[in-house]
Amino acid sequence: MPNTYFELLFDILMYYLPSSQEMIKKISKYSHPVIYHLMDPESQEETRDDHDDKQVATEIMARCFTPTLITHIPWEGFHFVGHEIRIAEATDCYGAVVWPSALVLCYFLETNAKQYNMVDKNVIEIGAGTGLVSIVATLLGAYVTATDLPELLGNLQYNISRNTKMKCKHLPRVTELSWGVALEKNFPRSSSHFDYVLAADVVYAHPFLEELLVTFDHLCKETTVILWAMKFRLEKENKFVDRFKELFDLEELSSFPSLDIKLYKAMKKNRRSA
């Protein structure tokens, strides 16, 4: 029994009015958005996701460091797989710069080394650019073929050699691969068996996206896994993903909205069941 008139009044109000939390939510909806945001479970989940995204993105970007000493060859430093990796870049060419998507893919390979084991695996990277992703895959124990356009191979070979020599189980190979060109001659289906195809930020040369798709298709067997990090810039990226999904089963592994980057896993559709 209530001891006072006010306690009795309070009990009556609690009986006829909605729960206090619902009441606060309804009131806050029209008062202060911050209060409503804190009380709403969906908003809390969005906040957590946003926090996780920014936290991991910050950790990924922190793997890059600036050299304290200036040398005659400009370079940028990265920390992956317990190694300091020094990458020579060239600002006059898109393919000779380390883009954030490469850092995302390197971070994924390192932190998911058990699930996506690179040891003794046959791996090819398309659009290898400066070679950072290929270097990390090599240091993780893979037999790597790093590919790109002819004009990028000199810098690519230099970076890969200086960062893997005496440090890796299998010496990586650097070779030319122009998307859609002489694929059967240079990478015959009968003898080219890749466990993984790695790609970071390859969807930028929009006039050659059909050739890129043909290249993906040619290099993959039914068991080949594509690990592909992609920065979304224009609507053409979305259209390419739609075309890609016609040939491959696509799974989004990670998303970093703060970087506009998504990380995908893909495997060739089973043609017999398609």
State Rg: 25 Å
Number of strands: 10
Structural class: alpha/beta
> How helical, in percent, are the residues?
25-40%
Briefly summarize what is shown.
This protein is of the alpha/beta class and 274 residues long. The chain is 39% helix and 21% strand. The strands form 2 sheets. Strands 6-5-4-7-8-10-9 form a 7-stranded mixed β-sheet, with helices on both faces.
Overview of this protein structure:
This protein is α/β, with parallel strands linked by helices and 274 residues long. The chain contains ten helices and ten strands. The strands form two sheets. A seven-stranded mixed β-sheet has the order 6-5-4-7-8-10-9, with helices on both faces. Helix 6 (132-139) runs parallel beside helix 7 (153-164).
Compile the SSE list and pairings.
Elements: H1 5-16, H2 20-29, H3 33-39, H4 41-61, E1 64-65, E2 75-80, E3 83-88, H5 100-111, E4 122-126, H6 132-139, E5 143-148, H7 153-164, E6 173-176, H8 183-186, E7 196-200, H9 209-219, E8 225-231, H10 235-244, E9 248-256, E10 261-268
Parallel strand pairs: 4-5, 4-7, 5-6, 7-8
Antiparallel strand pairs: 1-2, 2-3, 8-10, 9-10
Helix pairs in contact: 2-3, 5-6, 6-7
What are the defining features of this structure?
alpha/beta, three-stranded antiparallel sheet, seven-stranded mixed sheet, 10 strands, 274 residues, single chain, 10 helices
